[in-house]
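User: Modeling request: complex.
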Amino acid sequence: MTPVTRTGDIRIESFLSDTDERSLANDVLDGLTRPFKEIPPKHFYDARGSELFERICELPEYYPTRAERAILLARADSIVRRTGAGELVELGSGSAEKARILLGAMSRAGTLRRYVPLDVSESALEAAAQELVEEFDELEVHGVVGDFERHLGHVPAPDGVGRVDGVGGARIIALLGGTIGNFLPGTRRRLLREIGRLLGPRDRLLLGTDLVKNPAVIEAAYDDAEGVTAEFNRNVLHVINRELGADFSPEAFEHIAFFDRRHEWIEMRLRSQRPCTVLVGDLGLRVDFAAGEELRTEISAKFTRPRVEEDFHAAGLELDTWYTDPDELFALSLAARA
Ligand SMILES: C[S@@+](CC[C@H](N)C(=O)[O-])C[C@H]1O[C@@H](n2cnc3c(N)ncnc32)[C@H](O)[C@@H]1O
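Assistant: Request completed. Predicted assembly structure:
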């Protein structure tokens, strides 16, 4: 049974519960028993991880949020005019700071009806929903606490479909913040194809992608002077300790971020500073780390316009409009089903 919370204009459904723990357990079992250890980045985001990510977005070195926000501020009205959308589905919505800009444009256009945030972080989703219904009188929020790799089938059908006056229906499905870059190329295209299946003829995907640029600028964004990104990176070890009864000493792991020029992606890793054995109690698993051994916790691919177009093509989508900031740091693509 799916827990449903409903207050006024907010409805939140959760699909995580014990399946979430299973997904972390599977990823830990799979990722820590490989020759090259790896944990997928979605496990950063418990309540503390989401808060740390919000702090990262404010850091002087972390340009992606500011650049993407600037594009949205400049283009949200034209995106809404172009699509006629009154509904925003946002995958990996986080604090919904960027959604607010699009919802404001829908409100100004008189089309605003519904926001459908989907995120693994229940705390972030609830806080965002509450703030948004207070800000926009006409707004309904239908939140989905879930994993966009597994729960896209639970995204509710478009609001207003079948209305005889023809109003409603068109929606924007957004994946912002460069989150698509967290996936290896094959998985990325599969995910885009699955998202594409949600698109009706008038719907559009709005995809945020960080762009290839001077590696020093990218590396600084993932290794800030204050050490917030290092804390965020180590948070995944706190999550595994709490959720799976493990005994990592997070402070014994050093934060590493480097730009891989061949793949044009940034990698975040945690490097064990001394040899250690970690026990993951709930899995009965012992994991040895050699001194200097690294655990990969995130890749974040950087894009060019041709790369985005190739990914769309492979996923049965086509680019409709490409928006970027004056310094070409970040891009937003509006895409349709091909
Ligand atoms: C990099 S943050 C971006 C947040 C926000 N969209 C932005 O642009 O600032 C990634 C967000 O996606 C969520 N997330 C990551 N992987 C996810 C997954 N597989 N399913 C659902 N949400 C996910 C995280 O909880 C987090 O809120």
